[in-house]
Each structure stands twice: as C-alpha cells, then as structure tokens.
Amino acid sequence: MYYLFKLFVSIHIATGAVGLLTFWLAVLTRKGGAAHRKYGGLFARALLAAGSAALAMSLCTLASPIETHPSFVAAGMSRETLVNIFGWLMLYLSVFTLALVWHGRSSVRLKSNHLAHRAWFPIGLQIATIAAGANCIWHGVLISQPLMISFPFIGIIFAGLTLRFIATPNPPRLAYLNEHVKGIVGAAISVYTAFMNFGLVRLVPSLTFNPLLWAVPLSIGLGIIIYHVLRLRRGARRAS
C-alpha cells in the first residue's frame, strides 16, 4: 500500500504542477484565442489527472493511514488526524475538483447542446460532491474541526447551483461562460488550496488546518471569478 500510495503522490505532484502553471497562462492570454484554448485544455487535463490521483491517495489513506504516512506518524500525528485530513478531507477536495474541472470544460464544449449536460456522469459528479462534502462535515463535527465543518459548504453550494444550471431548460445565451469561469477558476482554487495544505504541511506539520492557508487561494480565486463575471455582464449589456 505504501508504494501504491507513493505512485499516486508522484502522479499528483507532476500533473498538479502542470495545472498550477497552465492556469495562469490561460488567465493571462486573450480569452477565446488559440493560446487560451491551448493552455486551458492542458490545465483541464492536468487537473483531471491530479484530482483522480488525489482521490486514489485519499482511498489509500482511509484503507491504511499508518502505513501510507510513516513520516507523520514519526512526527507524532495521530491516526485520527491522518484519516481526517488525508482521508475524508482530501476525498472531498478531490471529488469537488473533478466536478469543477469537468463542468468548467463541458460548459464551453456543450454551449450549443445544453441537454448533453444531463448525462449520468456530470450529474453523478455533482451528487458525489454533495455526498463527499456532507461526509466531511460529519467527520468534522465528530472531531470539532471548524474547517472540516465549514469548507465543504462551498462544494455543496456549487454542486447545487450546477445542478440547477443543468436542469434549466433554456439558460441565458452567455450563461455557459459564467459556468466556465466558475468551474475552471474554482478548480484552480481547489488545487492551490490542496498544494498549500497537503503539500506545505509535509514540511511544517504544525500548519495543519491553518485557516490562513485556506483563505488565501479562496480569496484570490473569488476575486478572479467576480472580475470575469462582471466583465461578461458588462459585455452582454453593451451587446444588447
């Protein structure tokens, strides 16, 4: 199990690093241009791979927390903490990331075929996000951990809004662009949050559950989302 876990960690780090870089290349290039589509596509594929690897890592942790994290055990971290942070919390974040990326990419690809969103897989991803978030909240309540209780509400709300978008018969003409921005930037928030919290804590375990490490990517990402949503609304008003 240890070596299997290490394999998934290596895949997660390699693909996550590609995602961390290509996100900003996509953000800083002209929207809709060839470079934006190129780097955005690389970002989406990298995040789908990184999220899948993270999901596998969380399942390995839940199956064998002590064997998969010997350095944290040596540092004095309890089995309960390992299960909660590298198990249930990572499980939620990985499923949420996959749901974000999939929807962000699909919203553009299916802009002319809205009903195609109603396939079992995209709907299942949103339902899985709600279930993983509720499970994380429950385990957070059991150990009285505020971040595990509060943070999953973001994923639950996003999944609910996405399901509402999917269920809408005829969404507004540019709604797919809002969904694209929210999905892709939301995925970037998730991967930067994972990098800061699951990566840095390996160097400094005392930073585990540090609220600042969760707040920074969320604040920057929300700022980007708000900026682009307002920009799209201004463009829609001028066009009308």
Mean pLDDT: 85
Q: Tell me the Rg in angstroms.
A: 18 Å
Q: Helicity level, as a percent range?
A: over 70%
Secondary structure class reads mainly alpha
What portion of residues belong to β-strands? under 5%
Reading the helices and strands in chain order gives HHHHHHHHHH
The structural domain count equals: 1
Number of helices: 10
Number of strands: 0
Kindly, what is the distance between the CA atoms of the first and last residues, rounded to a whole number of angstroms? Answer: 59 Å
The biggest beta sheet reads:
none
Q: Sum up the overall morphology in one term.
A: globular
In terms of per-residue confidence, which ranges show pLDDT below 50 for 5 or more consecutive residues?
Answer: none
Q: What does this entry show, briefly?
A:
The protein has 240 residues and is mainly alpha-helical.
Annotation keywords:
240 residues, mainly alpha, 10 helices
Task: Characterise the protein shown here.
The protein has helices at 2-28, 34-63, 65-68, 70-74, 79-109, 120-143, 146-150, 152-167, 175-203, 211-239. It has 240 residues and is mostly helical. It has one domain. It is built from 10 helices and no strands. The mean pLDDT is 85. The radius of gyration is 18 Å and the shape is globular. The relative contact order is 0.11. Helix 1 packs antiparallel against helix 2 (34-63) and helix 1 crosses helix 9 (175-203).
Strands, helices and their partners?
Layout: H1 2-28, H2 34-63, H3 65-68, H4 70-74, H5 79-109, H6 120-143, H7 146-150, H8 152-167, H9 175-203, H10 211-239
